[in-house]
Write a structure and sequence with these properties.
354 residues, Quinone Oxidoreductase, Chain A, domain 1, Rossmann fold, 7-stranded mixed beta sheet, 17 strands
């Protein structure tokens, strides 16, 4: 089969294009999927570059880093085995099943839940992995997945549109769940023009919250289509003044970086900060006095329950979410697609098509 294969940590040159890669066979409790589309996300970039390593303190650049510790270059703080086919956001048709897997899945269009689990201990976060990281994923013509991690989807949306949902929307829903967002909250979303940011806007609105999006002004028209109540510039010089009388109870952040203290300063007493990324930089200035004197709650969000993904699929089938598909690229042009993703050339998600 054709596949884009990651050969090691580093720059985009670490991807190799192969047209004769061995097509996988489904093992016990696995299905074989003919990949229709696969979305890109920050995990692909950060894993390739080794950005998750504690040795790296820079923002996500997409390039190689001078120092990447061998023991912790992945999201889970463990070494990665190469060669590796990345790509978590798989949409496609099940064409075969392994022993024990549900044969009625053959011929069904499915989405893949990226969280790998020990099915004897499925709620144990320490026993999780991620699709396209701890096992091969969807940057290929075919991919295998655990049958318990695929969800049939009944939708008129294209494969490319569906491939925008899995990682971004599950990540966003996990963040909002951890922060217990609901009616009466006002949620501030930095980076609202990105995949997770756009998902946060829509999902927070579904929960009945007031949503204030932050994005570069050139992207305000696109962000407005997602339905936020207000849109602010990406980095106002005086965020408090820009907010006016708004009382922000939740900040849902995947940006971090030098503007981070301003986000914390505008939270109301008893407010919540929830985080699942730090693309502008993982090292921030943290004033503990603001944290405890305002009775703030901070939650990190990574490993999600299976119900989060299943809820996203149900929202899709009911037409309650809109995809933010920015562009599609042929799989062979994955390097160019990922560079465009890094450069934020487009507003929203980028998908590759085998």
């Amino acid at each position: 089969m054709k596949a884009m294969v990651l050969m090691g940590h580093g720059g985009l040159d670490k991807y190799e294009w192969h047209e004769d890669w061995l097509t996988p066979s489904p093992g016990p409790m696995e299905v074989l999927i003919r990949v229709g589309a696969c979305g890109l996300n920050n995990t692909d970039v950060n894993t390739r570059t080794g950005w998750y390593s504690k040795a790296v303190s820079e923002a996500t650049t997409g390039g190689a880093y001078a120092d990447v510790a061998e023991e912790d270059p992945t999201w889970g703080g463990r070494p990665l085995t190469f060669p590796r086919i990345q790509g978590a956001d798989v949409v496609g048709i099940v064409v075969a099943v392994g022993e024990g897997a549900d044969a009625t899945l053959i011929g069904r269009r499915v989405m893949v839940n990226g969280w790998l689990r020990d099915w004897d201990d499925p709620d144990n976060m320490d026993k999780t992995g991620y699709y396209g990281s701890e096992c091969d994923g969807g940057f290929a013509e075919f991919a295998t997945a655990d049958a318990r991690n695929v969800v049939p989807v009944d939708s008129d949306l294209s494969d490319a549109a569906l491939a925008t949902f899995a990682c971004s929307y599950s990540t966003a829903e996990g963040m909002l769940s951890r922060a217990n967002v609901g009616a009466g909250d006002t949620v501030l979303v930095p980076g609202a023009s990105g995949g997770v940011g756009g998902a946060l806007v829509q999902l927070a609105k579904l929960r009945g919250a007031r949503v204030i999006a932050m994005a570069s002004e050139a992207k305000h028209d696109e962000v407005a289509k997602l339905g936020p109540d207000r849109i602010l510039p990406r980095a106002p010089a005086d965020l408090r003044a820009a907010l006016g009388d708004e009382k922000v109870t939740v900040v849902a952040d995947v940006v971090g970086g030098p503007c981070w203290p301003r986000l914390i300063d505008i939270l109301e007493r008893g407010g919540r900060y929830t985080c699942s990324g730090a693309i502008a930089g993982p090292i921030v200035e943290f004033d503990l006095r603001t944290f405890y004197l305002r009775d703030l709650t901070f939650t990190g969000s990574t490993v999600l329950s299976p119900q989060v993904f299943e809820n996203i699929v149900r929202h899709i089938e009911q037409g309650r979410l809109q995809p933010v598909l920015a562009a599609t690229y042929p799989l062979r042009e994955l390097r160019e697609a990922q560079q465009a993703f890094i450069d934020k050339t487009h507003t929203g998600n980028i998908v590759v098509i085998p």
